[in-house]
Amino acid sequence: MPAGDSFFSCAICGRGCAGLAMGRFSEKTLERNAMDVSILLVNWNTCGYLRECLQSIQDTVKGLEFEVIVVDNASTDGSAEMVRSEFPWAILVASSENVGFARGNNLALSHASGENLLVTNPDVVLLDGTLEGLVAFAREVPDAGAISPKLLNPDRTLQNFHGRIPTLSTLLFLHTHFGRWVDKHLLGQRIRRRDRYEVYGDFQEVLAFSDGGAGFCCTLIPRRAIQRIGFMDERFPVFFNDGDFAMRLFREGYRAYMLPHVQAIHYGGSSVKQLDRLTYNQEFVYGLRTFYGTFRGFLYNRAVDLILSLNVPVELGKALKAVLQRRRRPSSLFDPIVDFRKTLAYRPGNARPHIFKLAERPEGQETQGVPEETSPSPGIPAG
Known about the structure:
The protein is an alpha/beta fold and about 375 residues long. The chain contains 15 helices and 10 strands. The protein is globular, with a radius of gyration of 21 Å.
């Protein structure tokens, strides 16, 4: 957030938090009020899921000093009001605009004092021992930079959420009509199983990765790692912020871990499902191209464009069929070409080249927006 802006209002102090959004606050404050873990939640119109998530935190976390910071991205479904009335022990930071997932989490971190940071989506439900198991592992394994539980669907079946850092083969076989057909009918879904870590099945041993597995659905990150590499890059407001973070993490010698006996429930896609198809594609492709442009270069990005263009003839065929069946107007026949051009040209207004880094505050500068007092241990009202 550029200096002088005041999009945010802290529900505890009532002041604008522009100073915090720049990512600078006192490490001395952290030492004085250190928690075992700070839970960061960025919410956008997922009030029901957020309520269940916060309730699960209140019900299951035991034996840890923790705090919960909720950043609400200008929701219109009453999310902020629900947090204020039903979970007053949570730190609520309300934004007057949707600043995206990455910038929202950076803002949440600017309020956090935990030794560890749990980045979790509002549609995640913690189970007994989830947070305690993640924190214990982080303290025991020095090279752990991102630790995730085994994720379950609401019916308690295994969910394959995490995956490898995407490659061109990932893009071709998982994100084009032609590639998905080849992988399914000729390769026995070998590429999908490899890239989505489905090859491990219902794993019973700790998995360690240096090529992926650091998704931000429900992941514990030790503060020591963030002190070395920074937090989220705000060029990735929706997609591929996890891939960018993972690349920086692995380059510093950290690894991502998934724990078999520490589990959480994930409904999945509660926020992105609210996007229409064109907006979803625009955000996804923007994140993808920005990621490849950062870590692979110009020519790699041109290869991405070429692979994505393979979808256009298929979409044209679908449009023609719909026109012939009189389900669409003839004028919509070339919409796939128009939409593809719009997708490649898209630049989100809430993206900016900024990586949040923990830094000492200049002497004499007041820390804005950080409450002087925190909730009673373990973060919820006593008694």
